[in-house]
Each structure stands twice: as structure tokens, then as C-alpha cells.
Amino acid sequence: MNFRINKLRFYEALTIAARAISSNSPVPALSGIKVEVSQDSIILTGSDATLSIQVTLNNANDESLGLQVIEPGSVVIDSRYLLDIVKKIDSSDIHIEIIDGTLTHFMGQKAEFRINGYRPSEYPSIEFSEPAVRFSLSPDMLNSMMAAVSFSISNKDTRPVLTGVNMQARNGSLICTGTDSFRLSRKIFQIDCPEFSVTVPARTVNEAKSIFQDQEKMSVSLSEKKIQFRSPKIIMQSTLLEGSYPDTERLIPSAFNDTLVINRSLLQAAMDRSSFIKTDNMTIIRLQISSAEDITISSKSQEIGEYNEDLSAVSYEGIPIDISFSGSYLLDAVKSLSTENVVIHFTENMKPFIITNEGDDQSVLQLILPIRTYN
Residue 11 in 3-state DSSP? Predict the structure, then answer.
């Protein structure tokens, strides 16, 4: 293996591949990036065996790459050393050559490094073939999906399937859901794709959101075992979470008794003011509504004290309500919405309630379970 390449472009590609690498991989070779050089391209691969990223570099796709292949070959270099060397080498181009087995020579203008790598045969075989189910999903859609659902995803491994985003396609809609069993967030896109239902690790979607944000074209393909995000230069694939995702549709009320329309900024500020009044590390808010002009929120803690505030709303239709819930959950939900006013639908004091954008057809929906208190 012997080639020259633009340092900046090479470093940018390496940082993308390195996003898949775990800092404590049980397989030594997986701490490295696999560099495969052919006559006209370089393929960089990083993986932790669950998430894998492959970046392809060639002059046809990037005129500034300046790739000159002198001799094809491959090697695996520890990602920490490889990134550090390429970043700090003292030239705009870098010359890389295998000089003995896996001993790799990095040359800049005056600086040189010789680093021991791993044999490519020690690197696990990763199958990047494209699954049969394919559809288009823009980077903007990924961003809006995670903005709407990420905070509701569980961060506990007791139920692994809840640590991901459930993506379900049916009737021309892509329904993306996150839940930790205490709250639920849902984002719906109108999209043309075959029907499926999979649960994607939250880390995978977050990485895809970051990696593909500057890509003009992106597609998604999936099977029963894996999901792939693709652009002309990058393939990112991940295994899917196993297990049955909860039937969240039955949790969402189909009819409502009471509807509150309130200014989003006003409600967000009130939730923020109450956030330090905590019991057992939770801010429990009591919301009492008699009319649009008679709304009280309160919170109390034996250790800290109490908080009370009177609010007014744009409108309220329904009977008086007295409900308690997590203030941080409502704050997260309100932050994810975008209209000047938000709509909160209630059924009963101990039944879940939902929050949506005003005038929205529930393409973004936040659901919160109430908390039983003894006031």
C-alpha cells in the first residue's frame, strides 16, 4: 500500500469513520480504521460490531482529494493514532506507505511517523450489501424526527427495545415514536415507502443526523436485522433492536373531554421557574384549571419549599381539572413544539394527556402520563 492524498479531505473522512468505533472494544482490531486502497479509490471502515461506517474516497467524487495511488493494499491502524497523525502532520498532503508487514510510514514535509497496525485479516468481516426495502429520507427529516422524539427515549437497559426509535411505515406515512413508558413522543412524515416496523438504536439515528447533515442525497434501506443510511460517499449501517415495541397507538386517547390552548413561551417559562422544586429528584407540577382566566400551577417539596403561579390561556373548553405530572416532561415536550400557542388535550385526571402544535394535524404529538398525588 502506497498513496498520497490531501490531508484535510483524508482527515474529514477519517473522523466520519471513527464515529462508529468504541473506546473499549473487546476486539483489538476494532479499535482501528481499516484502510483499503485500490487503483482509483480508498475505502475507510470503522465499526464497533453494532454500528459500522464505510467512507469511499476517489477523485471522481472530489476534485480536491488529490489521490495518487502508487500501490494498492490495506491495513488497520488504531483510530486514535491515525487521526492524531493526519491532523498534525506538517504538510497539506500526506504520503502513506506500508514498509514492512503492518508497519506504516506516514510522511509530511519534514515530519515522519512509523506506526504498527493490524493485519486486515484480523478485522471482522462486515457485509455492506444494501437491503431490499429502500426509501428516501432527507437530513432535515432526521433532524426534525430526533428533535421531536429523542428526549422520550429510555436511557436504561432494563428494556433495550425502549432505547431506540420505533419507525413504522403504513398507509403512506412514516410514524416515528420514542417512549420510556412514562411519556411518549411521535413524529409523522408523509412518505412513499413499503410497509415495515423496526426499532433503531437512538445512537444510530443521532449519528446519522450528524454525519449526513451536509449530504445533498441520502437514502435508507433496511431488512429484519439491519438498517443502512447511504449517500454517494458514505454507508452507515446498524443492527436493529430486538423485541416487540409496545403498541403505543392504544395509549393515545382518541377522544378528549377538555382542551387548553396556551401560549408556548408562557408555559415554558413557568415550567422552567418551577424546575428546582423537587421531591425525590423530580419536579411534580399540580395544574388546576377552572377557566381560561383561572389557571394555577404549583409545586411543593418538604425539603425545599413551594412554588405557585397564576396563568391565563388563549382558551379552555371543558370541565374543571386538577392533574399532577412531571414538570420536566412537560418542559421537554413544549420545547419540541414550534407554534406560538400549544394545545393540550385532557381526558380525565388520571389518564394520559397530549400536547400538540396549534393547528397541527398531530404530525408532532407529545403524551405524558399523570402522577397520583395526595394533596
Answer: helix
Residue from 339, 337, 346 nearest 316 by CA: 346
pLDDT, tens only, 42-61 = 999 999 999 999 999 999 98
- Cα separation of 165 and 6, whole Å? 38
Distances (CA, A) of 119 to 3, 29, 276, 312: 18, 8, 55, 68
* 134 close to 228: Cβ distance less than 8 angstroms: no
Label each residue of 173-187 as H, E or C. Answer: EEEEEEECCCEEEEE
Q: Nearest 10 degrees: CA dihedral of 309, 314, 318, 323?
A: -30
In which residue are the cell numbers 415495515 written? 196
pLDDT digits (tens, 9 = 90+) for 135-174: 988 888 999 999 999 999 999 888 999 999 999 999 999 9
d(C-alpha 245, C-alpha 320), whole Å: 35
Separation of alpha carbons 270 and 259, rounded Å: 19
Contact between 220 and 208 (Cβ < 8 Å)? no
Domain 252-368 belongs to what architecture?
Answer: Box (3.70)
Amino acid at position 368, single letter: I
pTM equals: 0.89
Look at residue 220 and give its three-state secondary structure.
Answer: strand
Q: Which CATH superfamily is 137-248 part of?
A: DNA Polymerase III, subunit A, domain 2 (3.10.150.10)
According to DSSP, the β-strands at 226-230 and 234-239 are antiparallel
Residue pair 18/44 in contact by the 8 Å Cβ criterion: no
CATH no., domain 2-122: 3.10.150.10
Which residues neighbour 112 within 8 Å (Cβ) at sequence distance 6 or greater? 105, 106
CA distance 57 to 87: 18
- How far apart CA 212 and CA 174 sit, in angstroms, is 19
